[in-house]
Amino acid sequence: MKKENIPLHPLSIRIWHWINALIVLVLIITGTELRFTDIKIFSDYGFVVALHKYAGYLLTVSFLFWIAAYQFLGGFAGHYLVSIKDVRSLPAQAVFYLYGYFRGGPNPFSATAETRFNVLQKIAYSFIMFIATPVIILSGIIFGNIMDFYRIVHQLGGLRIIDAIHVITGYVFIIYLFVHLYMATLGKNIFSHTKSMFTGREP
Fold this sequence. Notes:
By secondary structure, this protein is an all-alpha fold. Helix content is 69%, strand content 0%. Helix 1 packs antiparallel against helix 2 (45-73), helix 1 (11-35) packs across helix 7 (159-183) and helix 2 packs across helix 5 (119-144).
């Protein structure tokens, strides 16, 4: 079977990907306006606060759906957990991204239905999904419901600490977004990876 006939991204994951991307974009836009009050994207500040808060709740639902989807689809470990084989491939993959790609060299990794992501992708996605996403969700829920979580806020060092954690994690998401968009152009052609998130197959 040719590689292009192997489905890489199930329909449920593709739908989740684009909805989650929209939610994150809304959170970044509203979060920027909340952080930098001189920036006026929306005229009603109260609307921005509410939109950011409820988009955060949607991110929570999206995150839980992602976990449930992989429980149903299977293959979670192969796609996201770094194996010994992955660790051994790390130097070659790093050299490809830093040098080989620009020289027209072949990618040492070939995606399959069982293993969609190379070791560097696994590290990046695992950090975002297992660390950054839970941190920004929990800090956002606490920050948006201060009176309900007053004891937790106090135990964590106060509002400034919660705010710092939430904002720093937000910056991490923004950096990741730019890196992700750039890495999405490093396929066989500039749109091949993006196209696969619509079709489910790598061209």
